[in-house]
Amino acid sequence: MKLKRISGWLLAGILLMGILAGVTPVTAAKIPANFAATPLLPKNQVSAKAGYFDLQVTPGATQVLKLAVTNPSGRPRTLQVIPVNATTADSGHAVYIPTDRPADASAQTTFTKMTSGAVTVSLAAHQGKTVTFHTQIPAGGFTGTVLGGLFVTDRNATRSSTENGDTSDFRINNRYAEVTAVALQCRPQQKLRTNLKLAAVGLHQPNNQPIAFARIRNLTPALFGDLTVTARVIQDSTGKQIATQTLRDGSMAPNSWFDDNISLGNQPLAAGQYTLKLHLTSGQRAWNFSGNFTLTRRQTAQHNSLIKSDTQPNYWWVWLLLLLFAILLAIGAYWFGKRRRDADDDDTENDN
Predict the structure, then answer these.
(1) Residues 99 and 84 sit within 8 Å (Cβ to Cβ)
(2) Neighbours of 189 (CB within 10 A)
(3) In which order are the strands placed within the sheet that holds 62-71?
(4) Phi then psi for 124, rounded to 5 degrees?
(5) The pLDDT of residue 89 is above 70
(6) What mean pLDDT do residues 70-74 have?
(7) Closest Cα to residue 185, out of 63, 95, 41?
(8) Exposed/middle/buried for 227, CB within 10 Å: 0-12, 13-18, 19+?
(9) What confidence score (pLDDT) does residue 30 get?
(10) b/e string for 250-268 if b means 16 or more Cβ within 10 A?
(11) Which of 16, 215, 295, 323 has a CA-to-CA distance to 126 between 20 and 30 Å?
(12) Strand pairing report for 177-185 and 53-56
C-alpha cells in the first residue's frame, strides 16, 4: 500500500512537471480517472509523430483547431479550455499556462490574439465532446513560430500567485490540468538566429527583502533551450563579488522575457552602487551583459537585519572550552594517579 501511494505521488509530480515547463511543446499525459484531452490533427500537420499541433499555416487563412475532451469518470464534470500564449516564467523556463504576463514587444502577433476565446464544456459521466477553436492568420503572415497552447482544467480551478505577486507560474490546487501545445509556422524550414537582449537591471523587494534582477528578452520568434545564465553581483566601491547565482537547463518561449532574480547573499552590505554581470550560453552562442543598480541605506538596513535574524548563533568556542576542560581533566587525573602510585611504591619500599 505504501509503495502504491509513493508511486501515485511520483506520477502526479511527473504530470505537473510536464504541464508547467519544457523546451519541447508536449501534450501532458492522459489521466483516465479525471479527464483527457486529445488533439485532432489536421492535414497541414508538419510532424505526424508529434502529439501536439505542429502546423504550417497560410497567411490570411482561418486555422481550425479541434480538441477531443473526454470524461472517463463516473460523475459529471465541467471543464474549461483556455487558449494561452507560451511565455517564459521567472524560473527561466518556457511554460504553457494561463498568465497575465504580456508577450515581448518584439512579437508580431500572439496565439491568443489570433484565436477565439475560452470554452466551457459540460460532460456527463463517461461522455466525450469535441471543442473547436478558430485561429485567424494575419494576411501578411508572420516570421518564425507563434507558440501557445490549449489549457484544459476543471471549471472550479483557482489560480494563486507566488509570494511576490508574480502569476507567471501556475499552482495547481487540488485538481489536474492538461495542456496541448500549438506551434504555428508559415515557413517551417526557416532558420533564425537567437537574439537576446538585457532590458533592465534593478531591485525587487518581496517581503521587504531587496533582490537584484535582470530582465532578459528573447527577441527571436523561436523557442530555444539549453540556456545557462551565470550572474555575479559586484560592489563598485571595493570591486568585491558579493553574490553569484547560476541558472541551468533554461529555455525561452518565442518573443518572451523573464526576470532572473539574484539573492544578494548572506553578508552585511553597505549602501552604494553595485554592478550585475551576466554570462549567458545556449549551444554555441554566448552573450555578456552588464548593468548597475543602487542600494539605498534603507534597503541595506533591511537586508542586513534579515541576514542578522537568519544567522544562527555559533557556539564553537563553547565546544572548544569543553574540549580543553576535558583534556585538562584527563591530564590531571593521570598526574594524580601517577603520584598516588609513586607514593604507594615508596611506602612499600619503606616497609621492607
Answers:
(1) yes
(2) 7
(3) 36-40, 62-71, 127-136
(4) -75, 170
(5) yes
(6) 90
(7) 63
(8) buried
(9) 38
(10) bbbbbbbbbbbbbebeeee
(11) 16
(12) parallel
Mean pLDDT (the chain) is: 83
pTM of this structure: 0.75
**Residue 114: all three cell numbers together:** 489570433
| Three-class secondary structure of residue 223 per DSSP | coil
HSE at residue 240, side-chain half, CA atoms within 13 A, is: 10
The identity of residue 319, as a single letter, is W
Domains, the chain, in order of start with CATH, read 26-185 (2.60.40.10), 196-310 (2.60.40.10)
The pLDDT value given to residue 32:
41
Distance, CA of 123 to CA of 279 (rounded, Å): 50
Please say whether the beta carbons of 212 and 229 come within 8 A.
Answer: no
On the 0-12 / 13-18 / 19+ scale of CB atoms within 10 A, 346 is: exposed
Q: What is the mean pLDDT of residues 292-313?
A: 79
Q: If you average pLDDT over residues 314-340, what whole number do you get?
A: 73
**The predicted structure's pLDDT at residue 180:** 96
The residue among 97, 127, 79, 118 whose CA lies nearest residue 17 is 97
Q: What is the pLDDT of residue 349?
A: 56
